[in-house]
Q: What sequence folds into this?
């Protein structure tokens, strides 16, 4: 009895393992034509919105263009970097390269996180599409990277130009006391002074500030035509705009800024944002067909309150680059091939026409001057002027 | 006249610090629990009020419901989480309450996302009033009034009522109070619930100055602890003085020497604590 059972068991085992081998063979065949893309971003913690926006835009892109291109399946592997954390960023990037064996890397939000993986990515020769990290200089140290976001000087200079053309002669700047604040401040001031404007004072506001009224009271005393701000995002930025609205707006002092009035944040700021002028590389209300489709699909897939922002368009355009590279070179693509394709590449994006600077891998794109207005009971940015095809001015001023 | 504006600004900021920290000074002083979850209770109140206002409740009703709700949550938390902690050391207390804060943060993030939560002030408080020398935001005057009213109310309640007398006795010497028949357990639960209610109240009325997001509980924790530490544990009058002084000093520094404001603020805190390590006006038992 016992033997009989064993023999039957044996037979079953043989059959099962044969099936297993067959199945494994089939999977390997399919896997051979899978291109793995690692996307690193904050998916938890206070900055998790970035990760969510990345993921939703990538889902929309894959819905519109399919999950494979030219027969090569694209597999996205998401990894959570948390906030600005270079050690963790390096660790998960290393895992993506050595364990998951990704063909392409994408994502990254914070400058220190991308600086930390610079050598690693260069050594491994993995092509990298930076979705954010707006510090101008960092891309120079990364031969296999392109950036699909913007740089701080790229958006700060146009608003200085616009201000001078629109009767603003004297300004005060108030920026958050950290590196992006300094970059933004330096670019604005240089351009504004170059055009003959006067900067009365440059205030640096500590990051932990909750009450901005004394700083802005100081601005009020100097009676400038406008105040230029750069905030760290979230509650402090909202408080800055609100304090401007209650103290400086009644005195006729304009508010100039860059990323402070994204549509996704406007409901939190409320009507205080009305009349704020900002310059940015993406305006949510532009009605090109790609942007209309992006907004429609985001709402259909993720609910009526989904609004695209700079993270969404960066991820969307990042996917465009990745799909094109995979379509052309397949899973065996090299970093050199990818760079050869991407540098100088032109395409249409939800933000407008795009080009990658063949010299340094940074964006050449429109910068829009917008004013916050109320349309159909909703606060939105309306374009009032376009600076066509702006390239990063920092690198032009600091040639290698 | 600018100086008067700065004084008003400082006073309003100090009042928010007072309203939100006074609950913490009482609970920490009375129960000797390092309650790092104070900001979490405040945040729950702010979120609750925000949800209620968004679903159509008037501001005052939403604030009242949120405060009552947080008081109940506080009572339950005292009975379940805090009571076993009383006999433990300060490290387990810090870890437990800090961990509780993370649970609250994660819960609110799951329910409402990482974004900010708006809690608009009622239209009646929005806008400017003419003070003769300038137009000043009405909301800030309201904060000053609320802070003063709360201070008066606490003064009467703590110094003028029997419950207040028992509370003071329990703060000064819990074992002796129990020996003479004060139900210290009940008193602890009620006081803790009241402390949480005050936190929630502060979060609701102060939401314009300290905006709500899931990291509220950690973002402002240092501020709360500074007020309590400088004021002295267990004495709401100390918290009042500390909050007003720190509010006015910080606001004037930001106005006069913006780049040095944080240095001056924390140097002052350091100096005050070196001069009086137990705070400006500690409760008798803490001396």
A:
């Amino acid at each position: 009895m016992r033997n009989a059972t064993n023999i039957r068991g044996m037979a079953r085992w043989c059959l099962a393992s044969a099936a297993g081998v067959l199945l494994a063979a089939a999977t390997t065949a399919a896997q051979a034509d899978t291109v793995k893309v690692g996307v690193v971003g904050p998916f938890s913690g206070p900055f998790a919105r970035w990760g969510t926006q990345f993921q939703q835009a990538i889902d929309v892109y894959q819905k519109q263009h399919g999950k494979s291109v030219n027969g090569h399946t694209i597999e996205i592997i998401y990894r959570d970097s948390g906030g600005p954390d270079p050690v963790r960023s390096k660790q998960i990037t290393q895992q993506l390269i050595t364990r998951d064996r990704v063909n392409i890397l994408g994502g990254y939000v914070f400058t220190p996180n991308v600086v930390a993986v610079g050598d690693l990515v260069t050594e491994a020769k993995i092509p990298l599409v930076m979705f954010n990290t707006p510090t101008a200089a960092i891309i120079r140290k990364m031969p296999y990277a392109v950036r699909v976001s913007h740089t701080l000087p790229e958006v700060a200079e146009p608003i200085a130009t616009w201000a001078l053309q629109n009767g603003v002669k004297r300004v005060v700047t108030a920026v958050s006391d950290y590196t992006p604040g300094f970059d933004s401040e330096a670019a604005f001031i240089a351009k504004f002074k170059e055009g003959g404007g006067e900067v009365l004072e440059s205030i640096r506001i500590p990051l932990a500030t909750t009450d901005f009224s004394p700083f802005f009271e100081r601005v009020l005393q100097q009676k400038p035509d406008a105040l230029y701000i750069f905030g760290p995002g979230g509650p402090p930025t909202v408080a800055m705009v609100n304090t401007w609205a209650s103290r400086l707006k009644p005195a006729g002092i304009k508010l100039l800024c860059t990323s402070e009035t994204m549509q996704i944040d406007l409901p939190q700021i409320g009507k205080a944002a009305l009349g704020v002028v900002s310059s940015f590389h993406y305006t949510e209300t532009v009605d090109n067909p790609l942007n209309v489709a992006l907004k429609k699909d985001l709402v259909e897939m993720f609910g009526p309150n989904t609004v695209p922002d700079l993270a969404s368009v960066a991820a969307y355009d990042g996917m465009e680059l990745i799909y094109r590279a995979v379509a052309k070179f397949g899973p065996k693509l090299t970093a050199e091939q990818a760079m050869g394709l991407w540098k100088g590449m032109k395409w249409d994006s939800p933000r407008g026409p795009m080009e990658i600077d063949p010299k340094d891998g940074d964006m050449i794109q429109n910068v829009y001057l917008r004013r916050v207005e109320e349309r159909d009971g909703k606060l939105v940015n309306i374009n009032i002027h376009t600076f066509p095809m702006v390239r990063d001015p920092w690198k032009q001023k600091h040639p290698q | 006249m600018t100086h008067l504006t700065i004084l008003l600004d400082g006073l309003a900021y100090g009042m928010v610090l007072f309203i939100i920290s006074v609950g913490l000074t009482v609970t920490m002083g009375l129960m000797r629990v390092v309650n790092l979850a104070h900001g979490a209770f405040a945040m729950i109140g702010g979120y609750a009020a925000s949800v209620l206002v968004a679903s159509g409740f008037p501001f005052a009703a939403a604030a009242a419901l949120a405060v009552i709700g947080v008081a109940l949550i506080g009572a339950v938390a005292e009975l379940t989480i805090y009571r076993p902690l009383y006999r433990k050391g300060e490290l387990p207390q810090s870890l437990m309450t800090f961990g509780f804060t993370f649970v609250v943060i994660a819960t609110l993030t799951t329910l409402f996302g990482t974004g900010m939560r708006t809690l608009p002030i009622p239209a009646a408080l929005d806008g400017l009033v003419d003070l003769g020398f300038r137009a000043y935001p009405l909301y800030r005057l309201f904060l000053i009034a609320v802070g003063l009213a709360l201070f008066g109310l606490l003064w009467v309640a703590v110094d003028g009522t029997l419950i207040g007398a028992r509370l003071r006795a329990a703060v000064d010497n819990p074992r002796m109070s129990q020996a003479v028949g004060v139900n210290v357990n009940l008193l602890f639960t009620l006081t803790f619930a009241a402390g949480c209610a005050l936190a929630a109240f502060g979060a609701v009325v102060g939401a314009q100055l300290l905006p709500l997001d899931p990291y509220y509980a950690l973002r402002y924790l240092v501020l709360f602890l500074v007020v309590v530490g400088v004021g002295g544990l267990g004495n709401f009058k100390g918290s009042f003085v500390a909050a007003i002084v720190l509010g006015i000093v910080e606001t004037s520094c930001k106005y006069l020497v913006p780049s040095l404001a944080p240095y001056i603020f924390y140097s002052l805190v350091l100096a005050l604590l070196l001069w009086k390590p137990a705070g400006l006006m500690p409760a008798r038992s803490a001396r």
Chain B has a mean pLDDT of 89. Strands of chain B lie at 128-130, 135-137.
